[in-house]
Amino acid sequence: MRTLALRVPAIDGEALDSWVEACCRRHRLTLGEFYRHMSMPGAGRRDLVTGVSRSEIERLALAGGMRSAQIESMTVSAMFPETDGYTVTPVATDYQVYPRPRAGFWLVTRSSRFCPQCLTEDGGRWQLGWRSRWAFACRRHHCLLVDTCPQCGSHPRRRRITQLRLRGGSCDGANGRYGGVCQFVLGGVQATALDADSPILCAQARIDTLLRTERDPSPSTWAPSPLLHDVAYLARQIILAGDITQIDCLVRGSGAAILELRETGDMARNSTRNFVSSFVLAPTIALALGVLDCAGIDEAARRLHELLPLPAEHLHCTNLHLEMNAWARRSVQVELIWNRLRTAEFVPDSSKRLIRRSN
Question: Which InterPro entries match (predicted)?
């Protein structure tokens, strides 16, 4: 196998499938032609981010003039801490099988959110971090990530278009009944702007750090840290019964998205494939972190009491299942907060008492 005639350097944090598409554009090839040149049969039916063989990694590295470690850093393995817990296990077919469902399910989505400004500035290249279920904001451009294409309504990066040459940063969603492709330029989409000191951006930075550094001790598989379990559990309760006014203060329009989710129960039908919108994810995770960052159990329970108007015993008796919480379980800290919320009598502050009397 020969190396590629024109070298295409990967950008920082890029996903492997994005780099492969950039190589195709540089050489004016379709994905199908590229995979045939690379002797990668069946690659067009797989997601290179979540499943690629060791021999394919070495082949891509040789063709692109890169190290194998650099190619592997563009796959889902880069999202896991470098410990024995995440090591990818080769099987008889030589394909790497990433840890599922324990890790792959809760961490990586089948599609990708995106920041339009990043797509424009980076020439249509897609970030690996956007594939995380915990990615909801762009810290570089201070905005929420966009969930869907405004033209066709589909989630980008779900399809493998092997027979067409697509522009970088364009939508690969279906358009029409006969296999058409949308090809809407996603760099022109308007994202929801955030203030530089927004709690949403602080929450995203905190989550990114937790994903890189913390893990739940386990001899055989990678698992999220206990704090991430708590964040997911509390975020779910806020989605189910949180005060819409407080949620909407963080991201305007998120309250309406959560009300729609409560009314339709849309996530209950197929939680393993559906996204939780960034409009829902961003404020609820930020509020959950605010509860967990309180100095003590009493203060945390009071804060949670302000967020959740329903009695605590009614909150987790529901059939609304959200993808990020399929594995979530409460820690001892959250159990203590929950017990305090059930038993304590919270007296509202004077301003709230005056409002209630006036009503």
Answer: TniQ
